Fold:
Amino acid sequence: MSSYHLDHLQHLETEAIHIMREVAAEFERPALLFSGGKDSICLLRLAEKAFRPSDIPMPFLNVETGHEFPELIEFRDRRAKELGAKLFVRTVDEGIAKGFVTPTPGQISRNQLQIPVLLNAIEEFQFDCCIGGARRDEEKARAKERFFSFRDAFGQWDPKNQRPEIWNLYNARVNQGENMRVFPLSNWTEMDVWEYIKKEKLEVPNIYFSHERECFRRGGQWLPVPPPHTDSTKPDPYSGARPTAKDPIKKMVCRVRTIADMISTGMIDSPASTVDDIIGEVAAARVTERGTRADDKASEAAMEDRKKQGYF
Structure:
């Protein structure tokens, strides 16, 4: 008697595809959060496998801080076009202009400001579910999240009052104004993501690989020097992210390990030029990938506080 056994990646893929199909079956207006980062790239491939040859039955949504890597924006737009998907983009700058986003004086990172933009977009398009690429291994608050993460009418998350998920049964019930965040990659690790990218031969933005870039030292990290601002008729979105006379600048061979905006993404010294090189680095790493995110280093409770307010 023969039996068919799934290997580790196949098991994760099957689980994630099941969750994708569950979302399509249970919700009327789901959206897929697509930033162009490695985790959301895996989500796209899983969505293709879940629904092809039909079109992916949900639009893509991305919230820009205004501090994004140009390479990431180009990749995001191109991939959405190649897949024939509708991409909705909402920005912090638009939120500030419309008055529903209020920056704190002196605030540099805009991650906190993404929250009202995301919640406003969910209300604007009446999304009842957003699929995200968060993984439990990333950070302590992420580890508390279920596959189906309920958000109340204010978009808030209560980690102490989550719905049980027994025998892979998911409670997708939401009332008017409420929504669900769903995380098909919850059980994946950073290594799993790169192994899957290798297995599926997925394209990723070139900033994940070794390249030469000017960086400056701030807060114990190397941060990328933003590109020159060319439109003098508008406020410079990178003004708070530029090095000062106190910040030493170094041209270095580096890459990103996890992509936030250019204010929060720490660059790492790395010669990795292939996916195999990256897999080797991840295997040897003794610091988590979010250890290179300046916004998370500010406070151990930073992520959980943001998530309770409605963050991704």
Observations:
- The chain has two domains: 8-191+301-309, 202-296.
- The longest strand covers residues 211-218.
- The first helix runs from residue 8 to 26.
- The chain has a mean pLDDT of 85.
